[in-house]
Recover the amino acids of this structure.
């Protein structure tokens, strides 16, 4: 027996006192007192055992086994098949009291099969992270799957190669829980010949044109020649045949730094003989320092609202930046890099009148990581295709920029009624990027609702062959309800009936009194039906002041017709072959019809209202360049400033013209006018044009010349160590810094790392890489006063899985695991050994069953019995009567008189005989002082039996008590009263 709270057993010390206190006094009922005392002691004992949490301990015959299966990169297909076959054979020995579970592990552990008594084993389908092996994590997960009360055992199937985690600590944890670990080594065919790269080390930062070395380490099993190549930007910059010797080989490859960029060097080893190809390539990054590099993104061919070609508005800006010493590289929105590796080659990115629909979601996400996590710069130059007019609303671009796409001053807006006709034909059910086209169209309608003001109205009409559950018209104040209904829109069938959809939209707008009425028609470029009568309907709508814009999704014969209908309706035509662009197109349409976003009138910029505007670095740089006055502008795109934005220049309406802020680790600038002859004709001809834009772009670039940080990443036991050497410009150590790093993994996730100082100017941080590919690290250093004095962006590549960095299995580790835990070692190829997995070579674990509820319940049952023993007196006669009442009636059912009636009858007979005796004897009775009742039959009446030996008192004399009243019953009643009042002796006297 075990006790959950054994401290409560100290109450047993009260037993001697309870016995002494409740010991019975001498008397006739002593046995009842002893019985009551014993019952009380038993009740108290039961309650004390219940308070102590009494538990019954028993051994179990059940056996529970958890199979731990290694599925990391070091396990090939043959080893995996051997492991699965062994488990299937072992499951045939599953007994009626046995259970089994399975865990598949690599860098993490997954439950493939929960604990079950079923002997059937399904094929393994779980896929853990294969980059590393963590046997300790698998053991810990296996321990959590065991049920209570059974013999517990782990069966580990692995090659013994572990790259992370503490295996032996987990084994000791299992051993402490009386759990053994059987091991089944998974052998690998010996590699006759193998050569692989171990490490590639390149300097983190070099100057432009500088010569430097890349150090390469390779390992080989025998003498052989190999080709060693280095690639930079997919170009071979080094190619040499080297001779490999058994063991580790080191090579120093001389290279010359080119133009400033974040260069990636890929080293490839091609040996004459090889077994594993995955470990023959590694890469390293080097930041080539030179003049600041800027990526200018602009369309080469611009059109105005009427389709006329406009001059390239970015040419003058590019020339101005190059004239001030900046290296400018030009690209288009479609060619903008979507990965951080390419973006980090530039110090700043400048977007010139770029529409959001020309940038994919991936590109915008990359720009956000570039600015926020890697301290990049972003400058957005406006135009009629930018900001709210360009569909920036609710995109990563709006998150990065210091301005919002909505104008908060609603008095400047005309009231608007919009009807959106959405194609819900069968083609809209096609998925794009895991989302259906109809869902993307619905999201575009949602953004329209979010852009509208409270006085505006919205109607959404899904149409295939007929309108299906149209929404609205409803005021925009009901945004939540409208958005919820829009997101429930689903695809239908057939094509879209254009005239039916436009008629429903016209009906929805007919009763609206708002100033602006507009229809947005989304139709399939290859499946727009019911065109008859549409031009006449559009002309009628135009006569009523209702404009029409069309959106063609996908190429087809109806694209040109949809464009003509938009021109006829006085609206705009949009074409896209990607449904992901629909939200940007819809928001662009909404801002276009509201018109207050596009302000085209002459004005002079003014200094921002913020008291810090004059103190901003951009304004100070302008002042230092001699810029005290600026020319007028002819237009801009309206926006609203964010709370923490710095407004340097404002428009005549108080809207932001030049705004800047810091976003994460980087900086971004918003210029809401353009840089071309449309709005900035006077600026392009202004002598300060080049100086102004140079100051703006250079502010977006972080100044890192105050300190030097040299960082290296070292991979060890599955963990990446970042070692930072911090020095000032004169080479002195920078101590007591707060070093932090933001790590961006290949999948775009970011994580923050703190560093510890480990030596003079040396700091160390750690992180665990989970995916192969390029990792980018932004490292910053600040003093205790919070002053930023150093910063660097570096790249590091996890070229291949560490599982390929070893050539042999590790059966010694597996044997050590079995020895520590008291387990056994099996041969995976021995079929007859598989059945021994479920053998019981160790006793089952003892289980504890709480019994305190039963003890307390028994105490409650005994309590009434204890009360009965103390309060109830049961004589032999009571027992006989109980017997006769219970069983006598069964024997003498025909007896007419009950026991009590028989006693009363005898009493009356005695009374009658006594009266007869007085009448016969006369005076002889009067002189007698004793009545002999020995002849009376009193055997069955306990009350009358008390008359034996009693003296008959003298008859009271006097007129009040006649002699005839001296009956036996009166005599007995009088004696009873005398005993109660204590006057019996006086009466005798």
């Amino acid at each position: 027996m075990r006790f959950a709270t054994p401290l409560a057993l100290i109450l047993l010390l009260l037993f001697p006192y309870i016995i002494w206190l409740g010991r019975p006094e001498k008397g006739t009922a002593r046995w009842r007192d002893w019985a009551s005392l014993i019952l009380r002691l038993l009740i108290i004992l039961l309650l004390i055992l219940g308070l102590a949490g009494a538990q019954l301990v028993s051994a179990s015959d059940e056996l529970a086994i958890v199979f731990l299966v290694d599925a990391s990169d070091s396990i090939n297909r043959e080893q995996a098949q051997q492991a699965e076959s062994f488990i299937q054979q072992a499951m045939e020995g599953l007994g009626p009291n046995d259970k089994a579970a399975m865990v598949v592990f690599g860098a993490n552990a997954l439950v493939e099969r929960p604990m079950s008594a079923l002997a059937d084993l399904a094929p393994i389908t779980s896929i853990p992270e294969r980059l590393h092996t963590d046997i300790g994590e698998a053991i810990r997960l296996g321990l959590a799957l065991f049920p209570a009360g059974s013999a517990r055992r782990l069966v580990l199937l692995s090659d013994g190669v572990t790259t992370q985690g503490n295996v032996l600590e987990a084994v000791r944890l299992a051993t402490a829980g009386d759990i053994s670990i059987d091991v089944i080594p998974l052998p690998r065919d010996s590699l006759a010949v193998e050569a692989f790269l171990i490490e590639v080390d390149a300097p983190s930062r070099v100057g432009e044109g500088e010569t430097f070395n890349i150090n390469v380490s390779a390992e080989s099993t025998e003498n052989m020649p190999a080709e060693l190549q280095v690639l930079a930007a997919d170009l071979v910059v080094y190619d040499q045949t080297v001779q490999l010797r058994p063991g580790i080989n080191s090579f120093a490859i001389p290279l010359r730094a080119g133009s400033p960029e974040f260069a990636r060097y890929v080293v490839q080893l091609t040996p004459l003989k090889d077994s594993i190809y995955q470990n023959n390539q590694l890469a390293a990054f080097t930041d080539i320092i030179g003049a600041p590099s800027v990526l200018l993104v602009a369309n080469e061919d611009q059109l105005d609202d009427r389709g006329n070609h406009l001059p390239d508005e970015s040419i003058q800006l590019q020339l101005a930046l190059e004239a001030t010493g900046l290296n400018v590289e030009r690209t288009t929105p479609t060619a903008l890099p979507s990965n951080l590796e390419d973006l980090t080659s530039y110090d700043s990115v400048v977007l010139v009148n770029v529409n959001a629909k020309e940038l994919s979601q991936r590109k915008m996400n990359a720009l956000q990581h570039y600015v926020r996590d890697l301290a990049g710069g972003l400058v957005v130059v406006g135009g009629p295709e930018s900001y709210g007019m360009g569909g920036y609303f609710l995109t990563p671009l709006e998150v990065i920029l210091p301005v919002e796409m909505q104008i908060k001053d609603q008095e400047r807006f005309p009231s608007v009624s919009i009807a959106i006709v959405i194609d819900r034909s069968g083609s809209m059910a096609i998925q794009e990027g895991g989302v259906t086209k109809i869902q993307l169209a619905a999201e575009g309608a949602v953004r329209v609702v979010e852009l509208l003001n409270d006085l505006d109205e919205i109607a959404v009409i899904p149409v295939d062959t007929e309108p299906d559950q149209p929404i609205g018209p409803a005021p925009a104040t009901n945004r939540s309800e409208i958005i919820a209904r829009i997101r429930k829109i689903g695809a239908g069938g057939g094509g879209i009936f254009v005239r039916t959809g436009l008629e429903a939209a016209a009906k929805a707008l007919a009763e609206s009194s708002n100033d602006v009425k507009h229809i947005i028609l989304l139709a399939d470029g290859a499946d727009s039906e019911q065109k008859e009568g549409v031009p006449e309907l559009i002309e009628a709508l135009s006569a009523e002041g209702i404009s029409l814009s069309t959106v063609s999704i996908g190429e087809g014969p109806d694209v040109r017709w949809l464009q003509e209908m938009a021109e006829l309706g006085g609206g705009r035509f949009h074409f896209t072959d990607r449904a992901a662009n629909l939200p940007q197109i819809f928001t662009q349409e909404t801002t276009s019809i509201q018109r207050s976003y596009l302000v085209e009138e002459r004005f002079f910029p003014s200094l921002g209202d913020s008291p810090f505007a004059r103190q901003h670095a951009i304004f100070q740089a302008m002042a230092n360049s001699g810029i005290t006055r600026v020319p007028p502008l002819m237009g801009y795109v309206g926006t609203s400033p964010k709370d923490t934005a710095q407004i340097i220049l404002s428009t005549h309406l108080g809207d932001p013209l030049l705004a800047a802020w810091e976003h994460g680790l980087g900086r971004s600038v918003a210029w809401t006018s353009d840089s071309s002859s449309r709005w900035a004709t006077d600026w392009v001809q202004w002598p300060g044009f080049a100086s102004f834009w140079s100051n703006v772009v250079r502010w977006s670039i972080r100044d890192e010349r105050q300190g030097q940080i040299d960082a290296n990443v070292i991979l060890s036991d599955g963990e990446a160590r970042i070692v930072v050497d911090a020095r000032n410009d004169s080479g002195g150590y920078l101590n007591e810094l707060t070093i932090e790093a933001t790590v961006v993994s290949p999948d775009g996730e970011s994580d923050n790392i703190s560093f510890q100082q480990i030596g003079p100017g040396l700091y160390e941080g750690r992180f665990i890489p989970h995916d192969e590919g390029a990792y980018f690290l932004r490292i910053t250093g600040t003093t205790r006063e919070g002053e930023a004095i150093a910063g660097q962006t570096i790249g590091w590549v996890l070229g291949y899985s560490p599982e390929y960095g070893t050539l042999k299995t590790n059966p010694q580790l597996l044997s050590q695991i079995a020895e520590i835990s008291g387990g056994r070692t099996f041969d995976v190829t021995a079929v007859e050994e598989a059945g021994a997995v479920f053998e019981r070579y160790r006793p089952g674990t003892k289980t504890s069953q709480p019994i305190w509820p039963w003890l307390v319940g028994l105490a409650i049952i005994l309590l009434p019995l204890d009360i009965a023993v103390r309060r109830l007196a049961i004589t032999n006669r009571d027992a006989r009567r109980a017997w006769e009442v219970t069983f006598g009636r069964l024997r003498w059912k025909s007896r007419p008189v009950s026991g009590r009636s028989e006693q009363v009858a005898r009493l009356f007979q005695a009374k009658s005989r006594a009266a007869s005796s007085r009448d016969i004897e006369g005076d002889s009775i009067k002189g007698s002082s004793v009545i002999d009742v020995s002849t009376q039959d009193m055997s069955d009446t306990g009350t009358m039996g008390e008359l034996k030996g009693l003296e008959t008192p003298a008859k009271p004399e006097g007129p009040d008590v006649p002699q005839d009243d001296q009956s036996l019953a009166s005599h007995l009643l009088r004696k009873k009263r005398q005993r109660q009042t204590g006057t019996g002796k006086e009466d005798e006297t």
Observations:
- Residues 923-965, 983-989 have pLDDT under 50 and may be disordered.
- The longest strand covers residues 261-271.
- The domain at 414-595 is CATH 3.40.50.410 (Rossmann fold).
- The CA atoms of residues 826 and 833 lie 7 Å apart.
